């Protein structure tokens, strides 16, 4: 099943080429669209929504042609822009209800949906207050809520973690994961922070300068090398030495030790070494190769 | 004693899909129009945003109230229905200037427009809804006081037949005034995201046209060039509508000097149409451009 597909999509502006013969296929679930600022992510979303006409190429979203069926596409998709897009003088509830109506929902249904969606994105009592007084985190939630109020089949989230603090970032990413799995709504999420996408995406598309660098399942990105991260309170040097002695490949990253996994015996080695040196083990987690690395490799090709 | 069994349990029912009705464009245009119309009068907004529209509405009603009082006490109708809008033109201009930017500027300034356009709402729908809302608001502002006077006239039962044709004519012209003023006002305001600048531009447009029209007419009259003076008067959009109206109904005009006869009427009517079409075209072009930006 294909959610969206593009074929040789090109968009030239007088000054720049935003997209350059981009052909991608996106399946259901959460798909990350990764690229530096100006890589053409936002332009791609606008073309997929049928708002901007491509210079060349074709595309289909949920089986509908972007050139001729824009309104039909926009009826069943949601869009969360990168920029601020909220009026300060009305409440989140009122705003989301209005946006639901603008998607064709009857007022009563829009009210019910708005209450549901605002609860899901984590806005409770504050949703009756004017948006002007909201924090950045709350605004991002309202922006997300308006994209979901009409129960779309696909949402485009443009830089949803922009401007959030680390905790807000984690919460937003968890929410995006839930939208893709529990809510059953396909997600195309963009970010220039590559690392954060690997936590929530099933599939990642990397574009640079409007061209496709790579498109593959998240597994392919991270399977290449399996690493684990070990953190101890103190004494990482003796531990590193001990593990190297036991035949493990260890790199020290500040307070963290990164180990290449050979098999189950690597985990045993860590356990034994920590016990023998009577260290306080703070963290033992599965590290993965970062998407940054993949991106960097590709970018240099 | 046993604990009573819990009777209410909150279940997290999780995400629910929506499979109810999804209306088409007609519905969204109506919903946006109603939302905007409420906004023009500050309904559902802060108390402060209700002050200007309601004070202006109150002042609009004053001549009507006075007129009803004079009819009741002196048995004389002081007001010609078709003159009401001309008499109150400064007030109407202030209303258009202060409320038109409210309709369009925040959507540009706070960049809400992309949220509309990423829905089935097209630029044409958006323009139609905004112009519709302002037109309805203005038509209400003109029609309600006149209707009040007419009801007063009927209830007080003045000597002679009621001026029903004058009333009906003024209702029709109220719609024409409303559409013309809304088109001009909202179009001018749609070119700036700044509300203050929008207010200044619209009021500036009115002051310019009415001043130029007034001065030219005065100068030409003093030079006894009455024909040219009659035409100069039409530079003011209020007199333009009034001129078309007098041509159609045969009533006397409310201008400083009679409107040009002969071609004057048809030209005025045509000019009103052309102004509306030009404004709407400009506004559509403006939003089409915004949509692809």
From TrEMBL, chain A:
<dbReference type="GO" id="GO:0005524">
    <property type="term" value="F:ATP binding"/>
</dbReference>
<keyword id="KW-0547">Nucleotide-binding</keyword>
<dbReference type="InterPro" id="IPR003439">
    <property type="entry name" value="ABC_transporter-like_ATP-bd"/>
</dbReference>
<keyword id="KW-0067">ATP-binding</keyword>
<feature type="domain" description="ABC transporter">
    <location>
        <begin position="4"/>
        <end position="234"/>
    </location>
</feature>
<protein>
    <submittedName>
        <fullName>ABC-2 type transport system ATP-binding protein</fullName>
    </submittedName>
</protein>
<keyword id="KW-0813">Transport</keyword>
<dbReference type="InterPro" id="IPR027417">
    <property type="entry name" value="P-loop_NTPase"/>
</dbReference>
<comment type="similarity">
    <text>Belongs to the ABC transporter superfamily.</text>
</comment>
<dbReference type="GO" id="GO:0016887">
    <property type="term" value="F:ATP hydrolysis activity"/>
</dbReference>
<dbReference type="InterPro" id="IPR003593">
    <property type="entry name" value="AAA+_ATPase"/>
</dbReference>
<dbReference type="Pfam" id="PF00005">
    <property type="entry name" value="ABC_tran"/>
</dbReference>
UniProtKB/TrEMBL annotation, chain B:
<dbReference type="GO" id="GO:0140359">
    <property type="term" value="F:ABC-type transporter activity"/>
</dbReference>
<feature type="transmembrane region" description="Helical">
    <location>
        <begin position="267"/>
        <end position="287"/>
    </location>
</feature>
<feature type="transmembrane region" description="Helical">
    <location>
        <begin position="126"/>
        <end position="151"/>
    </location>
</feature>
<protein>
    <submittedName>
        <fullName>ABC-2 type transport system permease protein</fullName>
    </submittedName>
</protein>
<keyword id="KW-1133">Transmembrane helix</keyword>
<keyword id="KW-0812">Transmembrane</keyword>
<feature type="transmembrane region" description="Helical">
    <location>
        <begin position="203"/>
        <end position="223"/>
    </location>
</feature>
<dbReference type="Pfam" id="PF12679">
    <property type="entry name" value="ABC2_membrane_2"/>
</dbReference>
<feature type="transmembrane region" description="Helical">
    <location>
        <begin position="51"/>
        <end position="74"/>
    </location>
</feature>
<keyword id="KW-0472">Membrane</keyword>
<feature type="transmembrane region" description="Helical">
    <location>
        <begin position="86"/>
        <end position="105"/>
    </location>
</feature>
<feature type="transmembrane region" description="Helical">
    <location>
        <begin position="171"/>
        <end position="191"/>
    </location>
</feature>
<dbReference type="GO" id="GO:0005886">
    <property type="term" value="C:plasma membrane"/>
</dbReference>
């Amino acid at each position: 099943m294909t959610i969206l597909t593009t074929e040789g999509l090109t968009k030239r502006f007088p000054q720049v080429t935003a997209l350059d013969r981009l052909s991608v296929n996106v399946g259901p679930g959460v798909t990350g669209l990764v690229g530096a600022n100006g890589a053409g992510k936002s332009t791609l979303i606008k073309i997929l929504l049928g708002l901007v006409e491509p210079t060349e190429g074709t595309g289909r979203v949920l089986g509908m042609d972007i050139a001729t069926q824009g309104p039909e596409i926009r009826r069943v998709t949601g869009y969360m822009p990168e920029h601020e897009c909220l009026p300060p003088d009305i409440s989140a509830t009122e705003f989301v209800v209005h946006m639901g109506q603008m998607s064709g929902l009857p007022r009563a249904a829009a009210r019910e949906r708005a209450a549901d969606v605002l609860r899901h994105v984590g806005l409770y009592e504050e949703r009756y207050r004017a948006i002007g007084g909201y924090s950045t985190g709350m605004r991002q939630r309202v922006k997300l809520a308006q994209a979901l109020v009409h129960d779309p089949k696909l949402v485009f989230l443009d830089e949803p973690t922009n401007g959030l603090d680390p905790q807000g970032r984690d919460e937003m990413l968890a929410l995006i994961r839930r939208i893709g799995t529990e809510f059953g709504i396909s997600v195309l999420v963009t970010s220039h922070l590559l690392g954060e996408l690997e936590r929530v995406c099933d599939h990642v598309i990397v574009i640079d300068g409007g061209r496709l660098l790579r498109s593959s399942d998240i597994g392919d990105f991270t399977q290449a090398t399996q690493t684990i991260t070990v953190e101890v309170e103190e004494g990482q040097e003796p531990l590193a030495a001990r593990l190297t002695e036991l035949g493990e490949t260890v790199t020290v990253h500040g307070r963290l030790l990164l180990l290449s996994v050979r098999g189950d015996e690597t985990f045993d080695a860590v356990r034994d070494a920590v016990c023998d040196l009577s260290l306080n083990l703070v963290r033992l987690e599965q590290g993965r190769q970062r998407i940054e690395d993949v991106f960097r490799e590709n970018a240099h090709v | 004693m046993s604990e009573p069994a819990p009777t209410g349990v909150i279940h997290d029912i999780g995400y629910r899909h929506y499979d109810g009705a999804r209306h088409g464009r007609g519905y969204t245009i109506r919903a946006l129009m109603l939302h905007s119309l409420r906004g023009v009068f500050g309904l559902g907004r802060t108390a402060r945003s209700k002050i200007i529209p309601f004070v202006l509405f109150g002042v609009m009603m004053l001549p009507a109230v006075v007129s009803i009082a004079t009819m009741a006490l002196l048995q004389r109708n002081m007001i010609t229905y078709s003159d009401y809008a001309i008499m109150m033109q400064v007030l109407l201009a202030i209303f258009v200037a202060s409320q038109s930017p409210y309709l369009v500027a925040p959507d540009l300034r706070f960049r809400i427009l992309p949220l509309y356009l990423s829905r089935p709402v097209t630029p044409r729908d958006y323009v139609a809804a905004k112009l519709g809302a302002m037109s309805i608001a203005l038509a209400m502002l003109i029609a309600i006081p006149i209707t009040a006077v007419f009801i007063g006239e009927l209830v007080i039962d003045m000597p002679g037949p009621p001026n029903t044709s004058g009333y009906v004519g003024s209702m029709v012209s109220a719609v024409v005034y409303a559409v013309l003023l809304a088109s001009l006002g909202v179009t001018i305001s749609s070119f700036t995201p700044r509300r203050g600048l929008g207010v200044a531009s619209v009021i500036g447009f009115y002051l310019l046209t009415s001043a130029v029209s007034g001065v030219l007419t005065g100068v030409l009259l003093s030079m006894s060039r009455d024909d040219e003076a009659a035409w100069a008067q039409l530079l003011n959009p209020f007199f333009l509508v009034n001129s078309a109206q007098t041509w159609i109904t045969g009533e006397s005009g409310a201008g400083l000097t009679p409107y040009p006869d002969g071609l004057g009427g048809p030209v005025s009517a045509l000019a009103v149409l052309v102004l509306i079409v030009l404004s709407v075209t400009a506004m559509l072009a403006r939003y089409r451009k915004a949509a692809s930006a």
